[in-house]
Write a structure and sequence with these properties.
There is one protein chain. The protein has 10 helices and 10 strands. It has about 280 residues and is an alpha/beta fold. It has 2 domains: about 5-215, 2-enoyl-CoA Hydratase, Chain A, domain 1 (Alpha-Beta Complex); about 220-265. The strands form 2 sheets. Strands 1-2-3-5-7-10 form a 6-stranded mixed β-sheet, with helices on both faces. The protein has a 4-stranded mixed β-sheet with strand order 4-6-8-9. Strand 2, helix 1 and strand 3 form a beta-alpha-beta unit.
């Protein structure tokens, strides 16, 4: 497939999706939405891909929805047909809850970890994209903001549910009500991002982490653990414990468990199959 607004690369078991409208700080368009979904579906279906990285070209990660789209909606007084409701792309894991099968909440439905490599501004819809990634790494030059209250809008696409889960009730209200821009250091203190790296080494640092996952961790374990963590958001402790016991018994019968023990005992690099 040829792409106009993203770049898609697969190498060393890592699929990298790069939003590629640098002159617009990678502002989001309907075409970009479709291309990202198509690329993610390819990465999800590819057995050689174990980790997905989402990043932006140039100085921005994603500055939010393209202003021409917002102007059109403002003039019409409503969103275009299909703009608000959309299910997960083909290849998403059907065992994942419907909550994670919506327009931008579908990253948790994927069997593979998704890392947001936030190289610059992640604002509005751009910030929402990062919230649904499994991990968020920020360049020292990254900036974050919700933007919605300053556009006469509200917390979109489940952000009012997801953001407090990550940074707490008070911090979420601060960012949503003020729509102020925060820098990477403050985002890290809030727990919005996992790590901050110097801009000069940022992409290589993110890739080094992704390679650790791709080469040294069981892909089967990553898939199951990811499901456990997201399902636990809706479970009691008892329910989470019972389901983990069932998952543990299944893991003890897996090929990856045998390889996990063997490579440790034999003091060699692992060769996980994902089975």
């Amino acid at each position: 497939m040829s792409y106009q607004q993203i770049l898609f690369d697969v190498s060393e078991r890592i699929a990298t999706i790069t939003l590629n409208r640098p002159e617009k700080l990678n502002a989001w368009t309907a075409q970009m939405d479709g291309e990202v979904r198509a690329a993610i579906a390819l990465a999800e279906a590819d057995p050689d891909v174990r980790v997905i990285i989402l990043t932006g070209a140039g100085r921005g990660f994603c500055a939010g929805a393209d202003m021409s789209l917002l102007q059109g909606i403002a003039a019409a007084g409503e969103a275009p047909s299909g703009a608000l409701g959309h299910h997960a792309p083909a290849g998403a894991n059907e065992k994942i809850r419907p909550d994670f099968q919506r327009k931008y909440s579908y990253f948790p439905s994927l069997s593979k970890p998704v890392i947001a490599a936030v190289n610059g501004h992640a604002v509005g819809l751009g910030l929402i994209l990062t919230l649904y990634c499994d991990l968020r790494f920020a360049s020292s030059e990254a900036k974050f903001g919700t933007a919605f209250a300053r556009r006469g809008l509200i917390a979109e696409y489940g952000m009012a549910w997801m953001l407090p889960k990550l940074i707490g009730h008070a911090n979420a209200l601060d960012l949503l009500l003020s729509a102020r821009i925060i820098e990477a250091g403050e985002a890290f203190k809030m727990g919005l991002v996992n790590r901050v790296a110097a801009a000069e080494t940022f992409q290589s640092d993110v890739r080094a982490y992704a390679l650790e996952l791709a080469n040294n961790v069981s892909p089967r374990s990553m898939t199951v653990i990811k499901q456990q963590v997201y399902n636990a958001m809706f479970q009691s402790l008892e329910e989470a414990t019972i389901s983990s016991e069932e998952a543990m018994l299944a893991s003890l019968r897996s090929e990856d468990f045998k390889e996990g023990v063997a490579h440790f005992v034999e003091k060699r690099a692992p060769h996980f199959s994902g089975n």
